[in-house]
């Protein structure tokens, strides 16, 4: 490719998704905030749309064992399709890379192929709720990836948070364990099944500051 072509491509390439950066100041003055800060006095949080439009060579196909038994559907990573009933009935028209496109079989195969290159996929595969999301954002605290947030369609009771689990030697979030899925109430301040991710207070603060979640109250 010539330098002129490269220059042309650089100018015509689509711009990366815009980053929303918020500076969150929380003043406590000895009073309790419902979003307690563990470490930060102020948090510089940002979000970026998570790109799930992975590109694979033509013919990257595999039969995947379904959780409920029965016939094994065929997943095609090049086409981003699956032959299971749910995909056929609900996902065929969802755009490539949209969370609504990914049945569990697609997620399991993608997670297997991409591994640590896309750690969120194992969390999404574990979360039977991920197809309810209209978008998934990467949430950063400063330059560090804090978690992923699955934003549901309006009026859904929960959103999903995908975050690295805590390992024994982790001294501060984010952890270094596998990505797990958690659900945060959209209207209240609680985690489903009482299971909160490592760094939950910081995560909630970032989500509230970025306008993704409003269940907590900041004073
Ligand atoms: Zn499927």
Report on this model:
- The chain has helices spanning 3-12, 85-91, 104-114, 120-126, 200-209; strands spanning 20-25, 42-49, 61-63, 74-76, 81-82, 133-141, 144-152, 158-164, 179-185.
- It is α+β, with helices and mostly antiparallel strands and 219 residues long.
- The protein folds into 2 domains: 19-51 and 132-209, no CATH class; 61-115, no CATH class.
- The chain has a 6-stranded antiparallel sheet, with helices on both faces. A 3-stranded antiparallel sheet has the order 3-4-5, with helices on one face.
- The longest helix has 11 residues, at 104-114.
- 33% of the residues are buried.
- Residues 13-18 and 27-40 have low confidence and may be disordered.
- The site of zinc ion (ZN) has 8 residues, from helix 2 and helix 3.
List keywords for this structure.
single chain; 219 residues; alpha+beta; 2 domains; six-stranded antiparallel β-sheet; three-stranded antiparallel β-sheet; 5 helices; 9 strands; globular; binds zinc ion
User: How do the SSEs run, as a string of H and E?
Assistant: HEEEEEHHHEEEEH
Number of domains: 2
Distance between the termini: 56 Å
Count of extended strands: 9
Rough outline = globular
Q: What is the percentage of strand-forming residues?
A: 15-25%
The biggest sheet amounts to: 6 strands, antiparallel
Strand ordering within the main sheet: 1-2-6-7-8-9
Low-confidence stretches: 13-18, 27-40
Mean pLDDT: 83
**What is the SS-derived class?**
alpha+beta
What is the gist of this entry?
The protein is of the alpha+beta class and 219 residues long. The chain contains five helices and nine strands; from the N terminus they run H-E-E-E-E-E-H-H-H-E-E-E-E-H. The protein is globular, with a radius of gyration of 19 Å.
